[in-house]
Each structure stands twice: as C-alpha cells, then as structure tokens.
Design goal:
This protein is α/β, with parallel strands linked by helices. The chain has a single domain, classed as 3-Layer(aba) Sandwich (Rossmann fold). The chain has 7 helices and 9 strands; from the N terminus they run αβαβαβαβαββαβββα. The protein has helices at residues 5-21, 33-43, 76-87, 103-110, 124-137, 168-179, 217-235; strands spanning 23-27, 47-51, 92-96, 116-119, 140-144, 157-160, 187-190, 200-202, 210-212. A 7-stranded mixed beta sheet has the order 3-2-1-4-5-7-6, with helices on both faces. Helix 2 links the parallel strand 1 (23-27) and strand 2 (47-51). Helix 4 crosses helix 5 (124-137). The longest helix is centred in the last third of the chain and has 19 residues, at 217-235. The two termini are 27 Å apart.
Length: 236
C-alpha cells in the first residue's frame, strides 16, 4: 500500500506529484520548525534542506519534537534527519548543521532552486537576513513570529507581514525590513494574544535578553500553520 494513499485521496495524485517535485528549505528546528519540517515530510515533499546548529537541551523537552531525555546533547539536524528518512526513504534531504547569518544566508538561499522557504529562526538578525535574501531572490517564504508566551491557539492568524498587530517580534521585524526597503510581500504565522508579564524572565545572553514561558502545543500548532501555508501554496 502506498504510504501517501490518504494524502492522494485528499487532493489527488496530480497535486501530490507537485509536492513530490517541490524543494523546500526549513531554517530553524526548534519548537516550531521541527514540527513544520516533519509535516512537510509526511505530506510527501520530495526535496528538503534543514538547517540548525543547536543540540537538544533539557529545557527543550516540554515542546520540541526531537527533544527527549535520550537525545539531550545530540544535534537536532541528526535526530530529525534519521526520523525523516525513516518516514520517507526516498526523500532527498540536505542537512546543514550550522547557524546562518550574513554571507552564509545569501549563499544558502542561492545554493539550490528552492520553491519555498520556511523561516522558523528565533533570533532577530538571522531571521531578518533570511527574509531579506528570500525576497531579493524572489523565493516564496513563510515566517513564524513568536509562539512563546502564547496560550490560546484559536488566536493564531496567517497574514501578510504588513497586517500583523500586537506582536512585538513582528513589529521589530517590520521596522528592520522597512530600512531594507521591504514593507510587505510574505506571509507570517502570528498571534496577537497578550503575553503576561509573569511569563517573561529577564536574562542577559548573547542572543537574547529574556526567556519566555511556553506550553507544549503552541509551537507545534505554529509549525502546522507554516506547513499548511507551504503545501496549499505549492498545489494552488
């Protein structure tokens, strides 16, 4: 029996073949990105590149797909690549175990003829660089805004970046992109839900100034929204 039988039943073999021919780049394999990547894999995307430089940490276990006690300290790319190839052995998978920014971002975006880019990066500068380079190259992109501190999945929306509101991350990204001449043109998954002050713990680190509380289901639902945007756009 064809493992994609139920997918083909939903939208037909013609559309399933579109996904099989598609090439998708997913950058960031944390709480959101890993779920988006797996859902794309299970939908039958034929070619994927996954990018992340992180290893699994204990604090990831409450929400991240590759995170278990047995995987602490292991590379997320390696865990997920084994998992994805076990789901679809015919998947053409490229693994990049690295953090990307600056020139690396430009090289990555130009490295293959990508049909779609999924941005699930959780730090500002690399996120803006990836969005900017994708827009410069004319590649479709969907970007995740912050899932941290959010509790109600019914408030999640998919809109153009220009239509986001009440989301601090989206506001900062809009501000930086305006300086680069970009005001609209790509979809984002975001939630306008208010973040409670008690859910934020101030910290001083290289890439962040605070830690935000998270619940198990919100990042995975954000990831589901990302994958749904990609799949629906590819077969439309």
């Amino acid at each position: 029996m064809d493992w994609l039988e139920r997918t083909n039943l939903l939208f037909g073999e013609k559309n399933a073949n579109k996904l099989k021919q598609a090439n998708v780049l997913i950058v960031g394999l944390g709480g959101v990105g890993a779920y988006a990547a797996e859902q794309l894999c299970r939908a039958g995307i034929g070619k994927m590149t996954i990018v992340d430089g992180d290893v699994v940490e204990t604090t990831n276990i409450n929400r991240q797909l590759p995170a278990m006690v047995s995987t602490i300290g292991k590379l997320k790319t390696e865990i997920l690549s084994e998992r994805f190839m076990d789901i679809n052995p015919q998947l053409k998978l490229t693994i990049i175990n690295d953090y990307i920014n600056g020139d690396k971002t430009a090289e990555l975006v130009k490295s293959q003829p990508f049909d779609y880019i999924v941005d699930a990066i959780d730090t500002m500068a690399p996120k803006v660089f990836l969005i900017y380079r994708a827009m410069q190259e004319g590649i479709k992109l969907v970007s995740s805004m912050g899932a941290g501190g959010k509790f109600d999945p019914t408030k999640i929306e998919v809109v153009d970046i220009s239509k986001t509101y009440n989301c601090k991350l989206a506001k900062l990204i809009r501000k930086r992109l305006r300086k680069l001449g970009i005001k609209k043109g790509f979809k984002v998954v975001f939630s306008p839900e208010e973040i409670l002050k008690k859910a934020i713990r101030p910290e001083e680190g290289q890439n962040k100034k605070s830690t935000v509380g998270t619940i198990s289901y919100m990042p995975s639902i954000f990831g589901g929204f990302l994958s749904s945007v990609v799949i629906r756009d590819l077969i439309s």
